[in-house]
Amino acid sequence: MSALVEIRDLVIAYDGAGAMTLGLDSAELTVARGETLAIVGESGSGKTTIGMSIGRLLPPEARIESGTITVDGVSVVNADAEALRQLRRDHLGFVFQNPMTALDPTMRIERQMVRAIGGKPSRDAIAALLRRAELDDPDRVMRSFPHELSGGMAQRVIIAMAIARSPKLIIADEPTASLDASIREKVMETLGRLREENGASMVILSHDLRLISRHADRVAVMYGGRVVEIGQSATVLERPAHPYTRALIAAAAGNEKPGERLEPILGAPPVLRGPGLKCAYEPRCGIARPECANNRPEARPVAARTVCCHFAEEVAAATSDTEEARTE
Ligand SMILES: Nc1ncnc2c1ncn2[C@@H]1O[C@H](COP(=O)(O)OP(=O)(O)O)[C@@H](O)[C@H]1O
Ligand SMILES: [Mg+2]
């Protein structure tokens, strides 16, 4: 069966005050049916841009310059207003970073749930849905205004709304970033369980490598508006083939021991003013050579994943050596 989502060669520009910024610079991605794909990368790498492009929910200053996006065989780029409305309503469920801004502060949860479900759902049906999102006092939640709920409860309401119409795809943009660290894992579990019960696919956008590594079948690593490495989670996270993936993992590992300084990735991510002619990671890369500054690496298969790096074989070999050394 064909992939549920296919993104090819996608270029998206933002027209800001006086300056153009590229949000995506030839991004490529597929989402298989029933899979959970995590998209990781530092802030500004293009995660939100690619996630929102799937529902064409980009802000007005964004322009799709070229490329294709298909969801279940339907072209999102060419869809008319009615087709888009249908796609968003019937096939996609969104969970955003901050549940409080996603909810309407002036409306009780019950009314917002009715809108999300559509038609005239019974109170029991709404309560059942809230219970599935692990809200154990659904009557109280339904009577509440958003500000009367904790952040975790509000995000569970959003999750219930996102799955209300059994979407084929759930897109969760930093779904636990605004929540207390103590409940992040639990909320992720709920999200994962509901995805599975619905047989849906899920795309999780996150900069938290450790959180998503436990919940994703595949991982896509973004840098400079491109997917620079994509493959099975274990393959990419245990034996990275892109130097940026390797640096991200090192930074996350430093984070594991409280009190210890995390190993930062030196330098800052790029702000793209036009299509890249070189490797966007070259200025920060420890193994960069002249080739990297002269030619942009295109996506190619190396060691069971797809990667954009001229020296991916070398990186993959080095990381599998360290793996072996560790397990000896
Ligand atoms: N509304 C916007 N106007 C101008 N530039 C934007 C806008 N949204 C995102 N960008 C730029 O596009 C790039 C990708 O951003 P984004 O998709 O938000 O990344 P992420 O979600 O990974 O942090 C960044 O350089 C960012 O500054
Ligand atoms: Mg973002």
TrEMBL record:
GO biological process terms held by the UniProt record: peptide transport
InterPro entries tied to this protein: AAA+_ATPase, ABC_Ni/Peptide_Import, ABC_transporter-like_ATP-bd, ABC_transporter-like_CS, Oligopep_ABC_C, P-loop_NTPase
Protein topology in the membrane: Peripheral membrane protein
Protein's cellular compartments: Cell inner membrane
Domain of life: Bacteria
Keywords, comma-separated and alphabetical: ATP-binding, Cell inner membrane, Cell membrane, Membrane, Nucleotide-binding, Translocase, Transport
Domain ABC transporter positions: 5-249
Protein name: ABC transporter ATP-binding protein
Organism: Flavimaribacter sediminis
Organism placement in taxonomy: Bacteria, Pseudomonadati, Pseudomonadota, Alphaproteobacteria, Hyphomicrobiales
